Amino acid sequence: MENNNTETEIDLKEIAFVLLDKIWLIIASTVLVGLIALLITKTIVTPMYTSDTSMYVMNKDSGGSITSSDIQVSTYLTNDYLNLVKSRTVLEKVISNLNLDMTVNELKGRITVTTPTNTRIIQIAVTDEDAFRAKKIADTVAEYSSARIVEIMKTEQVNIYDPANVPTRPSSPSTVRNVLIGALVGFILSVAVVIIRFILDDSVKTEDDIEKYLGCPMLAAIPYAEILDDSTAKKKKNRKKKGK
């Protein structure tokens, strides 16, 4: 057990030294992939804008006051409201009114409807590549869905108290997030490549590698550098003699 632990510790140290030796390559890969992610985000990915509006649902015969029973009922009806806002009837009217070049399912995918807990508020958010069109769609969806809720749910009225806005900044993509993800991917890939190359490399480079890979101790070593120096010196002497 002690030998296995020692070998694992040595391997981890070797890997750490290899990573430090290739740190320049890892840093370069991290920066390069991060820059590629930045370039793709700025030039290829289409920015999307999100506009939102809010409606207040008043129960019938509530007299404008909120009771605990009203809140309980509104909680039960939350899913009903959500489904009515994104119903086919409402979305078809929106598409027809705004002459949108998209199907009902495509429009439904761009709409997000939420209701804060224990409230009678419906929040509608629309995402589109055009900021002004996102506002128009949000307002139109609120208009038609409020009438639909009154008609189907028999509520007293639905008031749009927070009209849609024209977004000034795209909601997606997130440049910072994409660059960070790209840099992380570059870092992980470069580290993985360095480690895999180190693990697969079974060439003999040092005296310890002989015992490690071949399983036998080294008996002797030939000082290659000294032999090279001696042979070079002899050649120089022979040239001098010939010159004489």
Map the helices and strands:
Layout: H1 2-21, H2 23-43, E1 49-58, H3 68-76, H4 78-85, H5 88-98, H6 104-109, E2 111-114, E3 121-128, H7 131-153, E4 157-162, H8 175-200, H9 207-214, H10 224-243
Helix pairs in contact: 2-8, 5-7
Protein described:
The protein is an alpha+beta fold. It has 3 domains: 72 residues, no CATH class; 114 residues, EIF_2_alpha (Alpha-Beta Plaits, 2-Layer Sandwich); 38 residues, no CATH class. The protein is built from 10 helices and 4 strands, in the order ααβααααββαβααα. The protein has a 4-stranded antiparallel sheet with strand order 2-3-1-4. Helix 2 packs antiparallel against helix 8 and helix 5 packs across helix 7. The radius of gyration is 36 Å and the shape is elongated. The two termini are 69 Å apart. The N terminus is likely disordered.
Please work out how many helical segments DSSP would assign.
10
> Might you state the CATH topology name of the largest domain?
Alpha-Beta Plaits
Determine and state the CATH class of the largest domain. Answer: Alpha Beta
- Which outline best applies? elongated
CATH homologous superfamily classification of the largest domain: EIF_2_alpha
Give the distance, in angstroms, between the N- and C-terminal Cα atoms.
Answer: 69 Å
| Secondary-structure element pattern, one letter each | HHEHHHHEEHEHHH
Arithmetic mean of pLDDT: 79
- What portion of residues belong to β-strands? 5-15%
Profile the largest sheet.
4 strands, antiparallel
Low-confidence runs: 1-10
CATH architecture grouping of the largest domain: 2-Layer Sandwich
* Helix content range: 55-70%
How many domains make up the coordinates? 3
Q: Would you tell me the structural class of the helices and strands?
A: alpha+beta
In total, how many beta strands? 4
> What topology, given as strand order, has the largest sheet?
2-3-1-4
Q: Radius of gyration in whole Å, from Cα?
A: 36 Å
